[in-house]
Amino acid sequence: MTGVTTPVRLGPVQVGVGPPVLVVPLVATSIDDLAAQASAARDVGDVLEWRIDHMSDTSTDHVLDAGHALAEAAGTTPVLATYRTVAEGGADRRTGLREYTVRYQALLAAHLAAAIDVETALDVPDVIAAARDASTIIVGSSHDNAGTPPVEQIVARLAASAEHADICKAAVTAHTPDDVLALLTATREASRRLAQPVITMAMGPVGVITRLAGETFGSAAT
Questions:
Q1: CB neighbours of 73 closer than 8 A, spacing ≥ 6?
Q2: Cβ contact 151:189 at 8 Å
Q3: CA dihedral sign, ordered 110, 111, 117, 120
Q4: 21-58 pLDDT per residue, tens
Q5: Three-class DSSP category at 118
Q6: pTM score over 0.85
Q7: What is the SS3 assignment for 91?
Q8: Which residues are known to be catalytic?
């Protein structure tokens, strides 16, 4: 652990240096809506995060068709492909670990994303290997949809993601101002310890301030 952040490049965007990167989620259910959302957001955000789990059809062929349409609509704005599992707040209850792996492998082989999100809790070495083969950035993520763990646990989750990720992300759910302080304290500690850029946020109304002030504590994107 170096304490010196190594910036990561997503196409024309650098994460980990300068102002925080603005990531715009795309939660379309159809290919047409996905392309429309991307066209509207590409000049607003620095990165477009495609939430694949929100698609009404998540079969591999359909995901590839959607990925091609998104790439065209996004233009030069880099795409972060995210297949969130139900355990961490995802919308698709039909997909198991095998399907998760196959769909990511197909996207990576087609070079349809500048980065992919891989949950730290998952054991998916084939996805990691495919991302490395495709020279695609890995965002290692952890999401707590119930509450905010203690500071040391948040830091530990970020450090665990650093074992395979180029960017380390943790999201928690804040219920009180103390939860917000815990998240921001962990962000500061992890950003000092890890070489990878750190992205954190507290979900929920109380946590909105973490998306606005995260840069002060070391979060590289919002």
A1: 34, 35, 36, 38, 39, 42
A2: yes
A3: positive
A4: 999 999 999 999 999 999 999 999 999 999 999 999 99
A5: strand
A6: yes
A7: coil
A8: 143, 169
